Amino acid sequence: MKPVFAEIITIGDEILYGQITDTNSAWLGTELGLLGVQVKQISSIADKATDLIEALEEAMNRADLILITGGLGPTRDDITKKTLADYFKCELKLHEPSLADVTELFRSRGREMTEANRQQAFLPESCIPIRNIIGTAPGMWFEHKGKIIVSMPGVPYEMKRMMTDLVLPKIKESFEFPVIIHKVIQTIGIGESFLADQLSEWEDALPENIKLAYLPHLAGVRLRLTGIGSDADELEDQLLKELSTVSNLISKHIFAYGEVSLEETIGMLLLARNMTIATAESCTGGYVAHKLTSIPGSSMYYMGSILAYDNEVKIKQLQVKPETIEQHGAVSEQVVREMAENVRKIIGTDIGIATSGIAGPGGGSEDKPVGTLCIAYSDATKTISKKLFFNKDRELNIEFTTMSLLNLVRQSLP
Amino acid sequence: MKPVFAEIITIGDEILYGQITDTNSAWLGTELGLLGVQVKQISSIADKATDLIEALEEAMNRADLILITGGLGPTRDDITKKTLADYFKCELKLHEPSLADVTELFRSRGREMTEANRQQAFLPESCIPIRNIIGTAPGMWFEHKGKIIVSMPGVPYEMKRMMTDLVLPKIKESFEFPVIIHKVIQTIGIGESFLADQLSEWEDALPENIKLAYLPHLAGVRLRLTGIGSDADELEDQLLKELSTVSNLISKHIFAYGEVSLEETIGMLLLARNMTIATAESCTGGYVAHKLTSIPGSSMYYMGSILAYDNEVKIKQLQVKPETIEQHGAVSEQVVREMAENVRKIIGTDIGIATSGIAGPGGGSEDKPVGTLCIAYSDATKTISKKLFFNKDRELNIEFTTMSLLNLVRQSLP
């Protein structure tokens, strides 16, 4: 079985000027890797026909599959479609289903379609059009000199949807791949080097066809086991055996297996217990609620929140005792405990959780520096609070507080 | 004056696998752009000598200046230095000042230096070494066939420090540059194609040395004017003239000039008016509050929120009349108006804003499909509500509702 090589070409002056960071390539690299495709090069080029042709020709020499993103918009600086039509020596022709998609998109938004949008449904005759149901630019699939060239929009969510629904399945059919199976273990509350210490003996003894990757993020580390083989069942068995060893080694840090987020995990735990939750947030400013409500169906267990940024709101709406704030300060375990207990009673849920902290950059003091963060969990039988220190920037402090609180929920649920 | 073209090559398997996003290139692109260097291509390649040589040769054909990052570490998969020595046909030789730097670095950290780290001070004879005072790998400056090739570490903070302190000044001396000035105009509430329609006549008449770029995002479009000239004052005048024409053509869609976000703009507008704001969110689940509180100093104007995901919370905490919900449904302009008016009174702020909608994927009906989104703004003298349709995925519906509401605040503030 020959390895399949791919190249990614992202188009846009704004990438070269550094005004946007190309995140499409990393996402595509991951998806292709999961399939067993090896990415050989990523190239970012200008919105210029000659540059695209040069990059394409170089890529055609090296790769079996070339993915292009960007340059498909309705304005004149979007050159991809015209350039590809020239390169593959064919005309642009109206593609009726794409026109129907664009028309429907504008109809559903109650907006009028412009001529420029109508032009987006004209596609090179030699391509297989790829539907875009959430944007105005269809994708294009070309086969040329034994290579596959796919052009997709540069807008990340349109590209991802198109890739997941239509392009990846078609790539899978077009090449012969070895059996590759990935297993993901999600951990939280332990750093990469500590995890590596606990796993090193096991990792050293892994069979040759199984590789381990550490994928650290803010509050945890994703572990990915990748096995390559020829028989799916055998490989699955082999991976499950390793998985169970890892599980035993680091069980208390694992919150999920597979691509499941911590907020999804919390949702499933609450549903399984038929319990409801409410939040009382100060320093996280709604981010805990946002995380919980980002999960479809969260209205089954998430009831609401009182967001008390101002101390007056803590006292009036959350009924925190003024003397608690006076004695211990708004950023204290005492205050955050009252917030969690009270929000549970006020909204009438099974669980109440709360945050109060100094996210920065201002507001710190000698006694309570920026990055002092308090969290609390409360249910019918107990209240648990924690004081954390995590002095990064505002955004990261908010994110870290949120993930730590969700982890506290996971650990504390009855 | 000839334009100076550059290319950037970033080295590392982890970039191609998508395990890290290449952020060095965007930073380098910005720095080079500010200097007047045009980046022609960014290429990311594997830790492989043949791939580096191929990428370098292609870049040498197109560019005057080639910046390489990565592959300078002490491990065997770091191939950059050896490959460049081979390519420039010279030997590695101990560079005493670099050895002194590395030795000092380890001494200051109280750690022992390994042989692999000592090897990092061996550099190709034909290069001008570039000091690295915060890491173990020195940079290298080569001049070859009239081109300049610079190799730097891949660790972002080491690369940035080296670039800022040593490489950029040296690039400035090495070429003659035109003056390049960028101006950014931030718009919201109008799509790219509609904007293009309104600007086409003006765009067609732009002088040759000024280019316009459309940089669309979810709820708006950034416009960037780039001018190239020889005299900074003249070019600035020329750009300001064009800027004022654009401003007149699309004034009501512009919320800021320069790199300012909508939530920052709202913050500045509120501070200028000495006004406070509170939020009442349903479908956005805390995201509006999160956006507003992501701005440092937002506690000056943001007081709090009642997040009423459940209808009971809308009635009990937000005092929405049960009959309004019964008659019009929770997702209605009537309910969202009451939410905005009431939260303003309950929290005691100048402004109250509210959301209610069907973010999906569940919860839609014939009458109110997924993507039906209501927003409202209320102050002492008026309440304004809007019903929007925007059928994307849950995350985007939430984001779109939030940005639309912030735009409504911008338009409605007294």
Automatic annotation (TrEMBL), chains A, B:
<dbReference type="Pfam" id="PF02464">
    <property type="entry name" value="CinA"/>
</dbReference>
<dbReference type="InterPro" id="IPR001453">
    <property type="entry name" value="MoaB/Mog_dom"/>
</dbReference>
<keyword id="KW-0175">Coiled coil</keyword>
<dbReference type="InterPro" id="IPR041424">
    <property type="entry name" value="CinA_KH"/>
</dbReference>
<dbReference type="InterPro" id="IPR008136">
    <property type="entry name" value="CinA_C"/>
</dbReference>
<dbReference type="InterPro" id="IPR036653">
    <property type="entry name" value="CinA-like_C"/>
</dbReference>
<dbReference type="Pfam" id="PF00994">
    <property type="entry name" value="MoCF_biosynth"/>
</dbReference>
<feature type="domain" description="MoaB/Mog">
    <location>
        <begin position="7"/>
        <end position="173"/>
    </location>
</feature>
<comment type="similarity">
    <text>Belongs to the CinA family.</text>
</comment>
<protein>
    <recommendedName>
        <fullName>CinA-like protein</fullName>
    </recommendedName>
</protein>
<dbReference type="Pfam" id="PF18146">
    <property type="entry name" value="CinA_KH"/>
</dbReference>
<dbReference type="InterPro" id="IPR050101">
    <property type="entry name" value="CinA"/>
</dbReference>
<dbReference type="InterPro" id="IPR036425">
    <property type="entry name" value="MoaB/Mog-like_dom_sf"/>
</dbReference>
<feature type="coiled-coil region">
    <location>
        <begin position="39"/>
        <end position="66"/>
    </location>
</feature>
<dbReference type="InterPro" id="IPR008135">
    <property type="entry name" value="Competence-induced_CinA"/>
</dbReference>
